[in-house]
Structures are given as structure tokens and as C-alpha cells.
Amino acid sequence: MAASAEEKIIYPPTDLKKFFLAFGTIYFSFGGAASFPTFQNDMKNRNDFPKAATVGFAFLILLYLPVAILGYVVYGDKVQADIIDSISPSTIKSIIQVLLALHMLFAFLLVINASSQEFEEFFKVPSKFGWKRVAIRSSMMLFIVFVAQSVPKFGKVLNLVGGSAVTLTASVFPCIFYYRLCSKRDPNWPERNIPVHEKIYLIVIIVCGIVGGGISTYAAMNDIAAPESFNPPCYVNLTAADNF
Q1: What is the DSSP letter of 234?
Q2: CB 3.0–4.6 Å: which of 93, 182, 216, 244 could bond 23 by disulfide?
Q3: What is the mean pLDDT of residues 43-72?
Q4: Amino acid transporter transmembrane domain: which residues (predicted)?
Q5: What is the Cα–Cα distance from 14 to 19, expressed in whole angstroms?
């Protein structure tokens, strides 16, 4: 519920635990690197991918920052993990929910595409449309729905995934792979040299990713292990479904 005008807004001090939990959340929000190869592969002009990625991240920052800053300024310590839960029931809230549902419908297809293709390749599913592709992707969707319903407070899991897997795929692995590819020497492979300042830049990113991701993962696991963090899923306790 939104804070009323009479209530005093409290801004609690930030500690290291909150900082590293936020670290995982922020990485999750910007961690699309694992899907970038499929995006570039589907582009008409693949050389324009750096421009597309730069513009995309710029728009994300313009979308995320106002919501994060204004939400905290308006609600203070009463702000919920899902900012929509902090807004009082109204027509505006309903419109926001509809727009978010549409966003999830279209964005989810892009995010899950890379994983779907990996599973299809693993099970040797033909690339053309057929019942096997439908079965694989439908099974993935059912599993995702099951996980979503099994973990009502998914924000805590989001912190864990962001601090561990997303940090690796967005910061650590890309830098390592880039360095290894540029170090490769082969007659059929173009020679690429990384300047010293760029090597230092890559090392800093890798170290920050490993240290920050490791601490964020530890903080997220402690947060999940807390007794108040567990709620039975809706298919176990239907009467408590409204409290999720």
C-alpha cells in the first residue's frame, strides 16, 4: 500500500548487505549479454550491433533510473521489491500492470530464445517448425511457470541469480572469452592485439565481477535462508495466495 500524505517518510541508512543485494538486482536488470549473440545473428547488418547495444542500454538507464529514484523518494522504507505493490489501487496502476504484461510478453520471447535454441540443439530438434520444437518450448514454459509459482518471493532468487550467473555471463566470461579469442594464433584466424590499457580495463572488470558477484551471492543466500523469507507456494496453501 502506498504511504499516505500524513505518514512520515523514512530513509533508512544503507549497509553493505543492502548494497550487495542491490548489486545482484542491478546486474540482473542489465544482464542481457548471454542473449546478445542471437540478437546480433538475427540483425540485417551485424556490424551495427555495438550501436544497437549502446542505444539499448541508454534507454534502459533512462527507464530504470527515474522509477528507482522517484520510488525511493516517495515511499522511503515502505517501498516494495515490486514497485507496483507500493502504488494504491487506481486506474493508473491498472494501466501500468497491463503495459508491464505486454512488455513481458514481447521481451520474454527475446530473452528465452537463446536457451530454447540450446535445448533444441541438445535434443537434436530440427530447426524447422515441428511438434518437437513445440514440445521443447512448451515444456520450458511449464517449468518456468512452476518455478515462478514455487517461489512466491522471487525477488530474493533474482538477487541470487543476478549476483552469480548473470554477473558471470555479463562481466566475467565475456572479458575472458574476448581475451582468449584475441590471443589465438592460427593461419586461418585474423591476428588481433589488445592494447595494454584495454587489458587493464578487462582485468578490472573481471576482478570487480568476481568479487562483487561473490559477495552478492553470499548475501543473497543468507537472505534466502532467513526464516521470514519462506512462504508456501499457492498450490500448497491456496488461502495464503493473496499475501504473495
Answers
A1: T
A2: 216
A3: 89
A4: 14-220
A5: 7
